[in-house]
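Homework help board

Subject: predicted structure for assignment chain

Our instructor gave us this sequence and asked us to write out the predicted structure in token form, then describe one feature. I got the tokens but I'm not sure how to describe them. Can anyone check?
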Amino acid sequence: MRQIILDTETTGLDPKNGHRVIEIGCVEMVNRQMTDRTFHVYLNPDRKIDDEAIAVHGITDEFLRDKPNFEGVFEEFVDFVRDAEVIAHNAPFDVGFLDAELARIPGASKMSELMAGGVAIDTLALAREKRPGKRNSLDALCRDFKIDSSERTLHGALLDAELLTLVYLAMTREQSSMFNQSNTKNHGSRFEPIQKMVGLNRTAVLIRPTQIEEQNHLALIEEMRKKGATPRWDEIE
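My token output:
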């Protein structure tokens, strides 16, 4: 299973008003293990950045003046995310902006056509479901899951994607034993090694059911069959 944790920074809040993507950061996971591959670019949006947006991410018009536009990097971006499960915090925001950028490229696919499953996993919605009534910003999640975010003085796409990767693993750690470790080699270009990642060297513990638990399980399945149900275990077999 290949997953891409993704974040963007933009010139403003709404692509329908002509706002553009100015930074993309992606982190790759394979079988819930981070590889050494990331995708990170700054982009010239060919328009002014709102002052309110600069206050959030600190990226200025001057800094982006010599950077490529989206058309110059979109093939690399598409190659990186294609056929992967995409994960983002407030995913409709990021996907909406990326779709707007892709729509400017003749013949380019939409994000729904690139992503495995067609829909991104929204960690904000996931957090709200798991933590009703709590603050679920990335900063709040890092604090509650004891993930060091001290370097995050401003928003930044790659740093936020790295932090979100750790948050996602923490929120879904019950799935960890389902997957095996996998190593993917660095392919160069903008696929850069992740630095300073922590909390990843965990060893899954396999807990097997006792004989009594297995007998109780089989009895429950048989009772379900008698009532006309088709247990999922039968479908798998």
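Reply (TA_rk): Your tokens look well-formed. For the description, you could write something like this. DSSP finds ten helices and five strands in the chain. That's the kind of observation they're looking for.
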